[in-house]
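Hi support team,

I've been running sequence recovery on a batch of backbones for a student project. Most finish fine, but this one hangs at about 90% for roughly twenty minutes before it completes. I'm not sure whether the input is malformed or the queue is just slow. I've pasted the structure tokens below so you can try to reproduce it. Let me know if you need the job ID as well.

Thanks,
M.K.
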């Protein structure tokens, strides 16, 4: 069985056919995930999956179709309540609740709802009292109320709990929290539908050491800076105080960005994890994936995630060590790639640029291939093959009932992603690493574990869904080199453009592949990071007004990581 996880998670993401105001799109989506450990099994529910996934180890997942649930309703929430697994999801007219004692074999039963909500979250306290949180708006706050644990009707009046605060830098919309300069028709359509103000959404409650951690997402899932913040209270309905370490889940850089609208749960060993939404948002604004991150609470009770190198492989283990250096380094960035063919604007170089939003595309769908030259011999331990979609123009077999803003068909038909991955030391003598030429799976972010020395990898693509011309956004290779880590870099300059905007520049290091900006509000709480490639300057717009800022810049290459010196900038 596999041991490694590499974000985005290796899952069978479902295709959606959407006709939104006359504009038709086809893309994969899973978002707004909730994971619940119930009777020794992890259940993962996410938007637009037409079912759920389950696992015994957080690594190997199986899909189960579940049509008795409202699968067209966004942001599903699942919790154990009174020994049963309960489900609910967003609906602006009326939302029902569903429960099962064993979702793998017993269908969910319905409890009639009595009020509408969007982005729901159920939470049962240790005393048996049931609380409910919801909200998804750029105008309204998040709300909370107590529910009757038998009827699921409200007890008392809802309370407004969390609203947008302009002193929180991470709540601002835009790439890197900067205002959009785009004037494209697509951008105008998005803003016409979603507005320009930040969305406050995706409530989720976690109780730890008698304190209540109300998590929320902002500012919009189509941005690289989609994140989760948290407020803390001594009571499930507040009053709540903004945690000093915020956002607690934040991944703006690297191959796959975004870490918002998720859930926090304990594993079988008592360790915390946070699962959340990661974005692609090229073919459709809601083209999204899922990410899993180690999570913990420090000695002061502050909640934080480990999102350094968070789209590189890591192990699910009992020790749950936070911020340990990666076991395997990225070997493929910027390396040479060759292909059997390519279309204009989608050359082979895009499989090694560490950007999920760019890709190679073949001219045909008949046994097209890629060759990756790592330029040196390395110990290779993992390969992540990331398949992409490029403006698929396919009519759906039919449309499901119309939602409030679009027609949608979630495609649960059988698709297959088939390929052969080979390795070589000399580009002549190849051997098979992984043969999926006859597989029955559809895994667009497949992760292969291995243990051998290689320089070349060859990927031959046998089949992709809809017989499309195959696209690869990343043929990512991980392992270890046999040379030295890069030299240390130094900060050259910095200035605060505003209380929530920090600009930094640092010295270029010749033997570095990239840089990881590590920062936080205390010297011993450097909980945030921003990974960059190919540049030596960056805006950091996710900081909070008035916070102290401690920062260091690490360098990395195929051989290891060199930490920078910690400096206090404010």
């Amino acid at each position: 069985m596999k041991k490694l996880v590499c974000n985005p998670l290796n899952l069978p993401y479902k295709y959606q056919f959407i006709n939104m105001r006359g504009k038709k799109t086809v893309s994969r989506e899973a978002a707004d995930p909730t994971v619940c450990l119930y009777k020794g099994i992890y259940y993962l529910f996410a938007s637009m999956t037409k079912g759920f996934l389950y696992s015994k180890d957080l690594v190997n997942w199986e899909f189960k179709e579940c049509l008795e649930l409202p699968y067209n309703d966004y942001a599903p929430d699942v919790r154990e309540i009174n020994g049963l697994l309960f489900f609910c999801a967003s609906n602006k007219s009326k939302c029902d609740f569903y429960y099962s004692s064993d979702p793998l074999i017993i269908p969910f039963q319905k409890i009639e709802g009595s009020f509408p909500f969007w982005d729901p979250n159920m939470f049962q306290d240790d005393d048996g009292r049931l609380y409910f949180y919801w909200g998804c708006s750029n105008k309204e706050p998040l709300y909370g109320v107590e529910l009757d644990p038998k009827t699921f009707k409200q007890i008392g009046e809802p309370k407004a709990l969390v609203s947008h605060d302009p002193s929180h830098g991470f709540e601002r919309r835009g790439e890197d929290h900067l205002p959009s300069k785009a004037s494209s028709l697509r951008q105008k359509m998005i803003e016409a539908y979603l507005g320009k103000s930040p969305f406050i959404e995706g409530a989720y409650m976690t109780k730890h050491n008698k304190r209540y951690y109300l998590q929320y997402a902002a500012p919009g899932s189509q941005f690289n800076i989609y994140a989760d913040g948290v407020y803390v209270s001594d009571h499930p309905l507040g009053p709540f105080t903004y945690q000093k370490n915020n956002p607690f889940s934040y991944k703006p850089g690297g191959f796959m960005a975004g870490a918002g609208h998720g859930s926090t749960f304990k594993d079988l060993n008592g360790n915390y994890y946070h699962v959340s939404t990661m974005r692609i948002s090229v073919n459709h604004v809601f083209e999204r994936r899922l990410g899993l991150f180690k999570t913990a609470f420090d000695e002061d009770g502050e909640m934080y995630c480990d999102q350094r190198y968070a789209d590189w492989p890591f192990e699910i283990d009992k020790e749950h060590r936070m911020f340990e250096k990666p076991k395997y380094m990225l070997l493929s960035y910027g390396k040479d790639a060759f292909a059997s063919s390519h279309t204009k604007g989608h050359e082979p170089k895009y499989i090694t640029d560490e950007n999920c939003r760019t890709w190679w595309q073949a001219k045909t769908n008949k046994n097209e291939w890629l060759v990756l030259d790592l330029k040196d011999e390395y110990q290779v331990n993992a390969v992540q093959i990331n398949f992409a979609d490029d403006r698929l123009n396919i009519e759906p077999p039919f449309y499901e009932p119309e939602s409030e803003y679009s027609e949608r068909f979630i495609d649960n038909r059988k698709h297959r992603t088939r390929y052969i991955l080979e390795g070589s030391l000399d580009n002549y003598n190849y051997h098979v690493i992984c043969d999926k030429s006859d597989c029955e799976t559809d895994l667009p972010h497949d992760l292969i574990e291995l243990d051998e020395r290689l320089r070349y990898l060859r990927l031959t693509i046998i089949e992709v869904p809809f017989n499309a011309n195959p696209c690869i956004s990343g043929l990512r290779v991980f392992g270890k080199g046999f040379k030295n880590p890069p030299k240390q870099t130094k900060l050259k300059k910095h200035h605060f453009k505003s209380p929530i905007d920090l600009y930094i520049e640092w010295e270029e290091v010749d033997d570095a592949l990239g840089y990881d900006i590590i920062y936080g509000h205390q010297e011993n709480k450097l909980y945030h990071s921003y990974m960059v490639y190919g540049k030596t300057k960056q805006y950091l717009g996710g900081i909070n007004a008035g916070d102290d800022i401690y920062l260091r810049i690490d360098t990395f290459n195929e051989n290891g990581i060199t930490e920078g010196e910690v400096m206090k900038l404010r």
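--
Follow-up from support: It reproduced on our side and the slowdown came from queue contention, not your input. DSSP finds one helix and 43 strands in the chain. No action needed from you.
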